[in-house]
Amino acid sequence: MCGIVGYVGKKPVVDILLDGLEQLEYRGYDSSGIALKCADSIKVYKAEGKLKNLREELAPHAYELTKATTGIGHIRWATHGAPTVLNAHPHTCNCGNLTVVHNGIIENYKELKEELEAKGCTFRSQTDTETVAHLVASIYGQVKDLTKAVHLASEKIQGAYALCIMHNNEPNKIVVTKRNAPLIVGYGENEFYVASDIPAFIKHTKRAVYLSDNQVATLTPDSIVLEDEHGNKLEPKVELLPWEPIALSKMGYKHFMLKEIHEQPDVIRNILVGKLHTPEDPIVLDEVKLTRETLKNLNRIQIIACGTSLHAAMIGKYIIENFCGIPVDVEASSEYIYRKTVTDEHTLVIGVSQSGETADTLTAIKQSKAKGSHILIITNRPDSAMAREADSLIPVSAGIEVSVAATKSYIAQLTSFYLLALYMAEIKGTMAQSDLTALKAEMMLLPQKIEQILAHKEDIQKCARKYSGTRDFIYIARGINYPTALEGALKLKEISYINATGYSAGELKHGPIAMLDETMPVLSILMKGSVYEKLLSNSEEAKARNARMIALTNSTDEKLDDLFDFIIRVPDVIELLSPIVAMIPLQLIAYYIAEFLGKDVDQPRNLAKSVTVE
Ligand code: AGP
Questions:
Q1: What is the pLDDT of residues 363-389, one digit of tens each?
Q2: What average pLDDT does this structure show over 311-324?
Q3: Quick check: pTM over 0.70?
Q4: With CB atoms 3.0 to 4.6 Å apart as the test, which of 137, 382, 383, 588 could cross-link to 98 if both were Cys?
């Protein structure tokens, strides 16, 4: 989390930094700040809240700051210390000569702080980052060389970080380094950019170097000196980024989330192109680099992910087990990395991540890779850190997702899981040809079905209005749609802040039913198939406790009218594909409730699009 950007060159730096930070706002938006090398000092400007506050803060100084051509900037997602101006980056040493922006967490900051305080440093913020400013400055006092000081400081720092550092005595220079956090250097003409993600500088250059862990780069307008952790010089490997500058536009929609929900039919169409030609043809999935022989003998899969991607993984488990008969374990990456996991070269490990940068998932992937597992990554960012760890890479190609709440990337992950499961089932011969053909034919109809739902979104809007005053919300489902209930609840809580929970309906009577009364909305994801009748009984049980019952269903059964206060009907779909169809109204309910409550839909409080801290 947090976004960092830096520039050294000949152009006025302020707008470069502000525009870059704007592109990184998805990484956090608690506060922002910039540091500029001016004539005889480094000037720091900070503001609490969104970037527009920093722009306002800078406006009165616009003219005097145009001369600055070297600077660093930061947009913060608070980890240590409240989102205040004092805790906003850049942080400086006590004399103000050295300034730093940081993405990540300095794990041993308390020990370092004690040492530095004993040496006379005074801390002004509650952040872990300020220790870096004092540490590098104190080493600089001895070695009088910023690059050397950064090397020596890195040896003492534990944790994850991407750092950009400037010193007043070494003008027109930024020293940068990273460990377990992304940092990319962009090459211009007599200028260099640095950022935690490509959108920050893609409109200026497409030539870039991805820094590896522990490397240190010294940037001046005319040169980059790249060194490994021991100070040995390295030849930078310049890559041409496969990116076009993206004009992020809401295309007339009120929020990016609504636009992204509407893009989902095309997202599915795009994914299917070249992979699913006709229901009769086998799935083409060249991205999977396991041999047919290995796939045939594959008898264990682990899937690791977080948040929405974890819910996609849970559905992935359901369909892989159903189609291929391979046992699949699914685990939250944050749990996976802190226990003794049993994985080896015979296990396929699948990492799922929209951003490809989620710290917990990245660590989990690295751990299982070290144990010899084949790593398959499903991500919307083929240029991400996770993608670079992949043995097999399935890019989900949902297009850039701006809204923090994942919608189209989730549907894209699910579509990719279906393709993967079908592909493996065809190779393993675990499904009857007629079932395969029927399923593929149904998959091809999914975009139209979503379009039908979107065409009747006013009904869903009505439902959202009706229940927007609630404090709590329960989603129930069974079988393949249990993760849909979890995801529906996650969507609602993250953008409306309503206490929403997803339950397996069979578990309701084992505790949660105690919460039900006439104030509690219970939304039942009642899709026709193996658990329909069971879920109907569970819904009756909730109704008997006076809950406010809502059905999301593809059934036309009239008896539902007596049981439910509100019914959202979706086009008919086979049970195995129902998670894709069922999710669309749940995204819309969350969206309309949050919009009705006047929440900041695209940038909900406390969240960030890319979670690069553990
Ligand atoms: C989704 O709406 C959330 N913002 C969040 O749960 C997200 O899915 C999670 O942080 C994982 O991110 P990733 O897919 O980028 O790894």
A1: 999 999 999 999 999 999 988 889 999
A2: 98
A3: yes
A4: 137
What span, in angstroms and rounded, lies between the C-alpha atoms of 574 and 278? Answer: 18
Q: Same domain for 138 and 41?
A: yes
Which residue in 434, 430, 413 sits closest to 422, CA to CA? 430
Q: Which residue has the tokens 């979706």?
A: 570
* Token digits of residue 555: 């059934």
Q: Which of 246, 268, 299 is the last residue of a domain?
A: 246
CATH of the domain at 164: 3.60.20.10
Same domain? For 467 and 535 the reply is yes
Contact 495/591 with Cβ under 8 angstroms?
A: yes
Q: Both tokens of residue 254?
A: 């009120």
130 and 268, same structural domain?
no
Q: Which of 304, 358, 606 to mutate to test the pocket of ligand 1 (most atoms within 8 A of CB)?
A: 358
**Is 609 among the catalytic positions?**
yes
Neighbouring CB atoms inside 10 A of 80's CB total 15
Peptide bond into 236 cis (omega under 30): no
Q: Final residue of a domain: which of 452, 484, 517?
A: 452
Range of the domain at 282: 249-452
Rounded distance between C-alpha atoms, residue 556 and residue 67, angstroms: 69
- Those residues whose C-beta lies under 8 Å from the C-beta of residue 63, and which sit 6 or more positions away, are none
Q: How far is the CA of 586 from the centre of ligand 1 (A)?
A: 17
Q: Which atom of ligand 1 is nearest to the CA of 358?
A: 16
Tens of pLDDT, residues 390-400: 999 999 989 88
CB 244 within 8 A of CB 409: no
Q: Is there a single domain that holds both residue 504 and residue 592?
A: yes
Q: Are residues 282 and 423 in the same domain?
A: yes
The tokens of 24 are what?
A: 């990184």
Residues 404 and 466 in one domain: no
pLDDT (tens digit, 9 = 90+) per residue, 192-222?
999 998 889 999 999 999 999 999 999 999 9
Annotated catalytic residue within 113, 259, 440, 609: 609
**Structural domain total, the chain:** 3
Cβ pair 376, 417 in contact under 8 A: no
Dump the DSSP string for 354-423. Answer: SSS--HHHHHHHHHHHHTT-EEEEEES-TTSHHHHH-SEEEE-------SSS-SHHHHHHHHHHHHHHHH
The ligand 1 atom at the shortest distance from the C-alpha of residue 355 is 15
In this prediction, residues 424-442 reach a mean pLDDT of: 96
Distance of CA 556 to CAs 397, 464, 565, Å? 35, 21, 15
Structure-model confidence comparison of residues 247 and 112, the more confident one: 112
Q: How far apart are CA 209 and CA 223, in angstroms?
A: 13
d(CA 555, CA 533): 11
- Residue 247 is predicted with a pLDDT of 56
Pocket of ligand 1 (CB under 6 A): 306-309, 353-355, 358, 361, 404-406, 494, 607, 611
- 38 located within any domain: yes
Based on the fold, state whether residues 217 and 362 are members of the same structural domain: no
